[in-house]
Automatic annotation (TrEMBL):
PROSITE patterns given in the database record: ADH_SHORT
SMART domains, per database record: PKS_KR
The entry's keywords: Oxidoreductase
Name of the gene encoding the protein in the UniProt record: fabG_26
Organism listed in the record: Methylobacterium crusticola
Protein origin, superkingdom: Bacteria
Descriptive protein name: 3-oxoacyl-[acyl-carrier-protein] reductase FabG
One Pfam family, short name: adh_short_C2
Classification via InterPro entries: KR_dom, NAD(P)-bd_dom_sf, Sc_DH/Rdtase_CS, SDR_fam
Assigned protein family: Belongs to the short-chain dehydrogenases/reductases (SDR) family.
Chain ranges of the Ketoreductase domain: 7-170
């Protein structure tokens, strides 16, 4: 028996990168998975197809988690399709870097709406349906401790996610719902490619600071999330696990 057999999981922002790897890992461990996407239906469909080809169960559901009705619809789709909810992974996120003189209201609101409000809205919707003993895993970033220049707004969103995690761990503990946060270091994904980070001086600098001497891969993060989603982590809540190859 796999450790997530009979469980239902929602992974936000799961059409590519870390989210896609998490969805596949949870399905591999036996969970039925809702693969959420905001705009990339082909990517989400490809993740669902890969899960099905491996013998798992998954559906793709569109929804912008920064909008309350869409976040609620995403959770309701999981309950309707699979009969309940046990795991929520708040992975949806956007990142844009800018020096302080270039920070705008639009930049701030876009990042905080998705990275922070999205976590709150998805969790609010999920809390009504999560079965006792469920698990919420939020995805933050090691940037909150590395403190890289030009990441003031992005780092601020992830610092907020860390604080929210601690509060909700206490708030939901009476229902034995665990809430933890995983903070990846630099990970090679479609997003870091398109942002121009892969192959850049920034990547070289980050790898140089990483004791294990390489960039992260999505599966490096997915395994940590799968652990936190399972009963193997039944005594773990309110914790931040930094999965960064040792970079601090």
């Amino acid at each position: 028996m796999s450790k997530l057999d009979g469980k239902v999981a929602v992974v936000t922002g799961a059409s590519k990168g870390i989210g896609a790897a998490i969805a596949k890992a949870l399905a591999r461990d036996g969970a039925a998975v809702v693969v959420n996407y905001a705009s990339s239906k082909p990517g989400a469909d490809a993740v669902v197809a890969a899960i099905a080809a491996a013998g798992g169960k998954a559906i793709a559901v569109q929804g912008d988690v920064s909008k309350a009705a869409e976040a609620q619809g995403l959770i309701e789709a999981a309950v309707t399709q699979f009969g309940g909810l046990d795991v929520l992974v708040n992975n949806s996120g956007v990142y844009e870097f800018a020096p302080i003189e270039d920070v705008t209201e639009e930049h701030y609101r876009r990042l905080f709406d998705v990275n922070v409000l999205g976590v709150l809205l998805a969790t609010r919707a999920a809390a009504k349906h999560l079965r006792d003993g469920g698990s919420i895993v939020n995805i933050s970033s090691a940037v909150t401790s590395v403190l890289t220049p030009t990441t003031a707004v992005y780092s601020g969103t992830k610092g907020a996610v860390n604080a929210i995690t601690g509060v909700l761990a206490n708030e939901l503990a009476p229902r034995k719902i665990r809430v933890n946060v995983v903070s990846p270091g630099f990970v090679v994904t479609e997003g870091t490619h398109s942002a121009g980070i892969v192959g850049s001086d920034m990547e070289a600098g980050l790898v140089a600071q990483t004791p294990l001497g390489r960039a992260g891969q999505p599966d490096d993060i997915a395994g940590v999330v799968a652990f936190l989603a399972s009963d193997d982590a039944r005594w773990v809540t309110g914790e931040e696990i930094t999965a960064s190859g040792g970079i601090r």
